[in-house]
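To assess whether ligand presence alters the predicted conformation, the chain was also submitted together with biotin. Input:
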Amino acid sequence: MPPATTLPGTTDRRIAALLALLAENATIVISGTRIGREIGVSRFTVWRWVERLRELGVRVKGQPRTGYFLEEVPDILTPDLLRKRMKGSLFGKRLFHFFKTDSTNRVGMELGYAGEPEGAVVLAEEQTAGRGRAGRSWHSERGAGIYTTLLLRPQISPVLAPLLTMLAGLSARAAIQAQTGASPELKWPNDLLLNGAKLGGILTEMHAEPNLVRFVVIGLGINVNQQKFPAEIAGLATSLRKETGKAHSRLELLVRLLTQFESDYNLFLREGPSYVVERFQRESDFAQGKRVRVESGRDTYLGTTDGLSPEGLLRVEKDDGQVVTVIAGDVTEVP
Ligand code: BTN
């Protein structure tokens, strides 16, 4: 496999090295000549890259003659830092980092078709066309959230793939709890809510034969440090920062998330669907006894959630007593 940085648009290894060098020597002025020597480029190239970092929102002070320093160590999810933290993990081997891309899921699908092995992680500081469920978009402000996609090649039937969405939700919930103490609610099948507002979402896409999954991409979006949202979603979305009153390290949260997901994924492969279904039922208040409105195709009805089927589909008892299984559709809590 070619190195993970050869995909068009991924962050140049050497720009990442420049950032790492500045971060390791934060507040110390380092001359352009020294930086150039350590990274193996000219002083002029260092200046160009510093300009590029500035455009991307990294606060580098100084100039070619005096040297450079970071005004603030940025919380950027560079592959170098992440690789060090994820040594030995399935998700520490192939990291594709973008300062800006359209959608990490789009990139993940492309990697999947190109034969990239299981465990690749796509990361973006910003997405210009982040995809949400049901054709919606995902607001992806630069540097504020976690926007990542994991490539998996599980040997499972395609009907079980939606369980991976639920599994990722469980892992994200555990990671958020461990880092911040906040306990997001899991709303079937793919939402993470805090105080009723959307904190995160998961979008799973796959390429499969009738009986076999070729690959799956799991896209996770978590609102971490957003302080405000665009007017259209301001009343619906929230972030960890808004809810806890303080900023959180995206890098630390991502490390927890990937580590947690790797262990949950192995448990799922070993123990089968019941592991996910039972754990989701235990951890999601939403799965049992919630009054909901279901909009599925042209059908809209009211009912009460009644647990999950063995395949992880939501059961709803309609008001006329009939129990139905929701395969796809929007399920919203009603008072
Ligand atoms: C939802 O609608 O709740 C799912 C949102 C999923 C958003 C994430 S952000 C990273 C990944 N890339 C995308 O384009 N979408 C997912």
